[in-house]
TrEMBL record:
The lineage of its organism: Bacteria, Pseudomonadati, Thermodesulfobacteriota, Desulfovibrionia, Desulfovibrionales. It comes from the Bacteria. Belongs to the Nudix hydrolase family. It is an enzyme of class 3 (hydrolase). It catalyses: 8-oxo-GTP + H2O = 8-oxo-GMP + diphosphate + H(+); 8-oxo-dGTP + H2O = 8-oxo-dGMP + diphosphate + H(+). One of its GO terms (biological process) is DNA replication. GO terms for molecular function: 8-oxo-7,8-dihydrodeoxyguanosine triphosphate pyrophosphatase activity; 8-oxo-7,8-dihydroguanosine triphosphate pyrophosphatase activity; 8-oxo-dGDP phosphatase activity; 8-oxo-GDP phosphatase activity; metal ion binding. Its cofactor is Mg(2+). The keyword Membrane does not apply. This is 8-oxo-dGTP diphosphatase. It comes from Pseudodesulfovibrio cashew. The keyword Ribosomal protein does not apply.
Length: 128
């Protein structure tokens, strides 16, 4: 039986656009785009995990976040259950602490970045 990994992801909004980050070299699935976030640690709430992950990845503190949707995706060796949050407020200045590239994406335009397969349905929903 494949394990399930529980992951939070933040759809960070600014000026009507959302933030996409590219998985850096040395990370699994490097070169694919995703929403910032990461694994939920044992005993951690989804919200706490997202706040921690955004601090670790981007040096910001989410101050306004709301749960949007949950989905599950099957990869070859595991399932990933993703919990997506809209992040509409944060403190701090965005910095790429893991050497990842960032892009602000206009949901009014067709998507052009290659998102992780687990994120494609969310990207499509944001652009519909």
């Amino acid at each position: 039986m494949k394990p399930t990994i529980h992951v939070v992801a933040g759809i960070i909004w600014q000026d009507g656009r959302y933030l996409a980050v590219e998985r850096p070299e040395g990370f699994p699935m490097a070169g694919w785009w995703e929403f910032p976030g990461g694994k939920i640690e044992l005993g951690e709430s989804q919200e706490d995990a997202l706040v921690r992950e955004l601090r670790e990845e981007l040096d910001i503190t989410a101050t306004e976040l709301s749960f949007w949707r949950e989905l599950e995706h099957e990869y070859d060796r595991y399932f990933v259950r993703l919990y997506f949050f809209h992040v509409t407020g944060f403190d701090g200045e965005l910095k790429c602490l893991e050497n990842q590239r960032m892009e602000w994406v206009d949901p009014g335009e067709p998507p052009v970045l290659e998102f992780l397969p687990a994120d494609v349905a969310v990207v499509e929903a944001l652009h519909s």
